[in-house]
Every structure is written in C-alpha cells, then in structure tokens.
Predict the structure.
Amino acid sequence: VSQVTLRILQKPATARALLVGFEDTGDAGTAVGDIIAAGIIPAGMEMMDGLAIQAAEDFANAGYPREAAALLIIELDGPQIEVDALIERVEGVVRAAGASSVRVSQSEEERNLFWAGRKSAFPAVGRISPDYLCMDGTIPRRRLPDMMRRMASLSQKYGLRVANVFHAGDGNLHPLILFDANQPGELERAEEFGADILRGCVEMGGVLTGEHGVGVEKRDLMTIQFTEDDLKQQQRLKCAFDPGHLLNPGKVFPHLHRCAELGRLHVHKGKLPHPDLPRF
C-alpha cells in the first residue's frame, strides 16, 4: 500500500439505539428487510438469537429481554429531530412485523450498554461451551427468516447448538457452532454443520464469506459458488502478482495449478484453437 485516502466525517449530533425483542426469529428477520425496504438506513443493525441473548445478558447485564427468541439492536443517528422521527417510523415497522418489546435508549450510557452485550457476545458464548466455530457467510436480507429456520433444522440434524450473532443490516451471518473437541466426532460434525450453512448461503443467493475471507476453511467449498473457469481465471490473476506462489500458498483454491499450466496452449491433432487470431 503506497497511499491511503481518508474522509473525515462529522460526529453525528444524536445517536440512539433501540432494543427490539421478538418471540420468533423469523419475524425478526422479516423486520430487518422491512426496515430497509421502508428507506430507513440505520447506522447499525445487529441480530442475536435466544441462546446468544442469554449468554450475553449473563456476561454483560445489558438489560436484554431474556424471554425473547430474537433481538434486534438498531442504531439511528443524525440531527435530533430526524432521529426522533426515525425512531417512530422504526417502531411502527418492527411492531407490524411482530415485535414483542421495544426499548429506546434515553442516554448515551444506556445506548453504550445496549451495545455492550452485543460486543461481548463472542466471549460470552465462550463461557457456555468448551469450543465453538465462528462461521461467516452472507445472504440477501429477505432470506434471513429462511436461513434462521434452516439453521434450526441443521442444529437438530447434527445434535449441536448454534448461537446466532450477526450483522443483520447487510445479511452477514456469524453463526457460532458450539461443540466439545474432547468428545469424539464433535469437531467433525461441527465442521460439516458449518459447511452446510455456507452451502445454504449460496443456495439462497448469497456468498461464502462476508468479511472473514476464504483461507483454508472454505477452500473446498469454492466450487459451490464458482465454476472451474471462474477459479482458473482467479488463479491467473494471482499468478500475475505472485508467480512464485509465495503469498498464502495452498489457500483459497481447491485445485492448485502451476502458473505455466494456466497459460498453456493446448494443440489438438495439430490444430491451433482460434487459428484466425494473429500470434507472435
């Protein structure tokens, strides 16, 4: 990196957060899409399911509704009069979607407390399970209810709990699959559980990753999202910058090729492909 350009933004005059509880995770997913469809762009919109709510509340005492099956944390910022109007609109949308409780922060301290539980969700889940896998996939927001139902079904299939904590506003999922590596077979079941979640993301029109990348974990799933030609073209691009395969060797691509192979010319029975093209 030789140059970085930054834009400094003025701190919003007002920022307030809403804690919205739901008795059904599907209703919470519907509310996310309805908020965006209404033309409201929150500064932040996070979602947690019942297991994550309990763990975070035990850890941070943020005042989360323990009886809720799902929780949305929605932050709105801007001029005070605008924020007040947006809060009223958002409250109307979430109640129409089936919200069972709505709580609006009344001070900066309370707003920070709302977020404290979400920000501590990962270590909080670490207190209730010896091990967990943090997955990362992205789906269209309108498919959130479908994905929540899919993960509940997969949890039963694999006999493993899953705590959902994710960036609902952009459909970026972070399911935390709980397991015990000391129990024979649980790690393998957790890995296959995670793979099925990512397969579901692609089936629903999403992608394998939102922000964590591919690396080794998702390498063998790349063929679900990309064709062989797609992957070869990506490897050609990498070869242009890394002909010696020094950067992250063995990652991202499920089938490795030497750079020379990707640029080879296949002559079949003495006939060149595309003989009309000039060659040098």
Remarks:
- The chain has ten helices and nine strands.
